[in-house]
């Protein structure tokens, strides 16, 4: 049986997985995007459907004023005695830190946060067979000196017992992303080391007790693509494991797909990958010790599945019809005054004059393919200084947009590129009427921007290199998001832009 990696393409980093009966649930980091912690469901570990988010209310998560790549880091998802637990870290806020939310139904409402007084990032929960709950996390004075620490936790109060150092990593530092498991009376600790780029790796230790000490795997790291510069997949790490109902074990983990000359770049973000796990001499072996490939062959998958791809790999089209589905996210908590769903289309009101502003009006979905097309049908008759259109956003300093705006009494369609300190309008043509179609055709290395006013085929306006929206150029921990935006004229009078249709079509 074959399946394709990544199983969740586009920005789906730091995957964590839990099982309830025949059902698997997977959550990923969301950083400055809201709602926070996207949540997916599967019965075969390959075909994933989004079922919502864990953090959907301002009372759970307030991201206003956050820098790019701050916010929600590295969740852990667990199911215990009929309750789902999600523990994560809110980074960069005055009231941030570790917290836990719970739910009886992961696709429903999650509780308000229970905060845990501990430093660092990457929290984990482990429930021992005697009912004791252990809290593992990464902490240290500086990144190279990060260590895995542990304490018992009271899940009613969030209070921790005595804190101990659990693991310092096989390289003496930068150990993160801890998870503990029990198998046949032996306790296993997996962590990530080497940073989250091309030196990333997964290491394992085992012990007779969940408090350690942990003996390192003789073949650590058990998963890494470091030293494989020509492989199409890189940065394998930050893993979680699960046992399926049929007894098989599996690992989910992040990775990237780089392109271009060595060293390559990537702009789709860190994605979620899957590999089988077997056991030998009481140790886990990932994919028989072989590298992870885009096309994987296994004897079988859990459940009744022919294999396949996750929902982000499918074509997507919406006319909104009074709702935003769960695939959409905002950059930080949305201002209700700028977004509305009147029943036909999505109405956007711009309140800033540029997407450089963290409070700008933008809603998007992860770009999940190197080769694809995205387009919107826009109803908009702007006043001077107003603009709306389709944007590709990496962060406030690296974004491209094709929009319709008005300047000097003339309505124009234009393409603007923001690359670091430089912002430039690279194309502008007159745009007649109120009906506009804006198109971005995408290849691995290039975005092509086209405009159509309904008189014929879309007119090519400009091209731009994808590499300037890559992590290697722009920095941070996210990937490119695609979606509609609106900009205002800095006055109280604003014209709503009506996004009547959005379509995303992968070419792969």
From TrEMBL:
- According to the entry, every stretch annotated as the Beta-xylosidase C-terminal Concanavalin A-like domain falls at 320-505
GO BP terms: carbohydrate metabolic process
Is this entry keyworded Cell cycle?
no
The record ties this protein, via CDD domains, to: GH43_XynB-like (cd18617)
EC number(s): the record gives 3.2.1.55, 3.2.1.37
State any single GO MF term: xylan 1,4-beta-xylosidase activity
InterPro entries with a match to the protein in the record: ConA-like_dom_sf, GH43_C2, Glyco_hydro_43, Glyco_hydro_beta-prop_sf, Glycosyl_Hydrlase_43
Among its keywords, does the record have Transport?
Answer: no
What Pfam families does this protein's entry cite?
GH43_C2, Glyco_hydro_43
Keyword line = Glycosidase, Hydrolase
Q: Per the similarity annotation, which family is this?
A: Belongs to the glycosyl hydrolase 43 family.
Q: Quote the protein name from its UniProt record.
A: Alpha-N-arabinofuranosidase protein
């Amino acid at each position: 049986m074959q399946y394709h990696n990544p199983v969740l393409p586009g920005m789906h980093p730091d995957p964590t997985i839990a099982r309830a009966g025949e059902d698997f649930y997977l959550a990923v980091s969301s950083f400055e995007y809201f709602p926070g912690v996207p949540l997916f469901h599967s019965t075969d570990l390959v075909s994933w459907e989004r079922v919502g988010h864990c953090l959907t209310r301002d009372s759970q998560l307030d991201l206003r004023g956050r820098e790019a790549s701050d916010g929600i880091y590295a969740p852990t998802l667990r199911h215990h005695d009929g309750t789902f637990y999600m523990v994560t870290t809110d980074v960069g806020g005055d009231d941030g830190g570790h917290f836990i939310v719970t739910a009886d139904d992961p696709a429903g409402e999650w509780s308000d946060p229970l905060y845990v007084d501990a430093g660092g990032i990457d929290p984990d929960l482990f429930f021992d067979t005697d009912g004791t709950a252990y809290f593992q996390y990464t902490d240290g004075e500086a990144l190279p000196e990060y260590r895995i620490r542990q304490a018992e936790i009271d899940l009613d109060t969030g209070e921790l017992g005595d804190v101990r150092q659990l693991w310092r990593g096989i390289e003496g530092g930068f150990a993160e992303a801890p998870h503990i498991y029990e198998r046949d009376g032996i306790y296993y600790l997996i962590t990530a080391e080497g940073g989250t780029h091309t030196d990333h790796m997964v290491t394992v230790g085992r012990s007779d007790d969940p408090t350690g000490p942990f003996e390192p795997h003789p073949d650590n790291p058990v998963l890494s693509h470091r030293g494989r510069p020509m492989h199409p997949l890189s940065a394998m790490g930050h893993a979680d494991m699960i046992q399926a109902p049929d007894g098989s074990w599996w690992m989910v983990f992040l990775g990237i797909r780089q392109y271009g000359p060595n060293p390559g770049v990537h702009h789709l973000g860190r994605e979620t990958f899957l590999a089988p796990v077997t056991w030998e001499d009481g140790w886990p072996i990932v994919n028989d010790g072989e590298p992870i490939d885009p096309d994987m062959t296994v004897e079988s998958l859990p459940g009744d599945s022919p294999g396949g791809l996750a929902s982000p790999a499918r074509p997507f089209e919406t006319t909104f019809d009074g709702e935003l589905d769960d695939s959409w996210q905002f950059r930080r908590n949305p201002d209700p005054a700028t977004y509305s769903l009147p029943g036909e289309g999505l109405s956007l009101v711009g309140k800033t004059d540029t997407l450089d502003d963290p409070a700008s009006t933008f809603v998007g979905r992860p770009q999940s393919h190197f080769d694809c097309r995205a387009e919107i049908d826009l109803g908009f008759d702007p006043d001077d200084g107003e603009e709306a259109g389709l944007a590709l956003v990496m962060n406030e300093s690296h974004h491209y947009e094709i929009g319709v705006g008005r300047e000097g009494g003339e309505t124009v369609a234009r393409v603007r590129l923001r690359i670091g300190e430089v912002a430039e309008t690279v194309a502008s043509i007159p745009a007649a009427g109120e009906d506009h179609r804006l198109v971005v055709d995408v290849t691995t290395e290039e975005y092509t921007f086209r405009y159509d006013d309904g008189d014929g085929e879309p007119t090519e306006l400009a091209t731009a290199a994808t590499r300037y929206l890559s992590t290697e150029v722009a920095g941070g921990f996210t990937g490119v998001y695609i979606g509609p935006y609106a900009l205002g004229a800095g006055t109280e009078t604003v014209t709503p832009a009506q996004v009547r249709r959005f379509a995303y079509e992968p070419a792969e």
